From TrEMBL:
Gene3D superfamilies: 3.40.50.1400. It comes from the Bacteria. SUPFAM superfamilies: Chelatase (SSF53800). InterPro entries: Anaerobic_Co-chelatase (IPR010388). This is Sirohydrochlorin cobaltochelatase. It comes from Blautia aquisgranensis.
Length: 265
């Protein structure tokens, strides 16, 4: 007689070397998922080999890659895997993660994938609302400038679409750009300039407030977004809070796990 199938969830993140933000973002997402699905063991994998290596060397902390986590799951007798990324978009990291996981497809009964944060129109609208709610106490003369990561992948278009959606849903003072693609800071400078804000709040549009938030967004270098905007004469306040800290964002990812399980049923 065959043993009953054992289902487990693999939560895949890019990772961060900043412990403070990890605790309130990646750890919090994993906890919410584990709490929502108590019958399924929850495993962790990160996709940044550089960060995995840094944590091992610096802190003696071992974090699995996707392939290592799946090897562990096989060893533990897991038969059915739900892979839930905490990636913001369906970009390069997510494509690579899927390829790594699917290399194990013949060794499990099933492997299904939950969607990254921004996948459907409903996701996009829910995230716009979550950000607007988070900064709802801003007055109308203050602009919120958000820094996304950005990618060469065609999925990058979601950032410009989301920036448009903020304006279209009445949030004329919220601007979303990227550190590595389009819309870049120069575009945001033009857009915010035409809005004429008295103050600017800067925040990361990334799951964690890690390296990009600490350095590219709020760092001391002259080309950080904080210093570029300050040099334009704005009074700028950085808020280093990753999207993973927003309860609504975590709820969306929990919902994506459930949707993945539904497609398997």
């Amino acid at each position: 007689m065959n043993a009953a199938p054992k289902k487990a969830i693999l939560v895949v993140s890019f990772g961060t070397s900043y412990e403070n933000t990890r605790k309130v973002t990646i750890d919090a997402i994993e906890k919410d998922i584990a709490d929502a699905f108590p019958a399924c063991p929850t495993y962790r994998a990160w996709t940044s080999k550089m960060i995995i290596s840094k944590l091992k060397k610096r802190d003696g902390i071992i974090i699995h890659t996707v392939k290592e986590a799946l090897e562990q799951m096989l060893h533990d007798g897991i038969t059915d895997v739900v892979v839930q990324p905490t990636h913001v978009i369906n970009g390069i990291e997510n494509d690579q993660m899927k390829a790594d996981a699917l290399s194990f497809k013949d060794q499990f009964h099933s492997i299904v994938f939950g969607n990254p944060l921004l996948t459907t129109e409903e996701d996009n609208q829910a995230v716009v609302q979550a950000v607007a709610d988070e900064f709802s106490d801003m007055d109308s003369e203050t602009a919120l400038v958000l820094m996304g990561h950005g990618t060469e992948h065609f999925a990058n278009s979601v950032y410009a679409a989301l920036d448009y959606r903020f304006k279209d849903t009445g949030h004329k003072n919220i601007f979303l750009g990227t550190v590595e693609a389009y819309p870049a800071l120069d575009s945001l400078l033009r857009a915010t300039g035409s809005f004429h804000p008295k103050k600017i709040v800067l925040a990361p549009f990334m799951i964690v407030a890690g390296d990009h938030a600490q350095n590219d967004l709020a760092g001391e270098e002259p080309d950080s977004w904080l210093n570029r905007l300050s040099s334009e004469g704005y009074e700028v306040t950085p808020v280093l809070k990753g999207l993973g800290e927003y309860p609504e964002v975590r709820r969306i990812l929990v919902d994506h796990v459930q949707q993945a399980m539904n497609q398997e049923a």
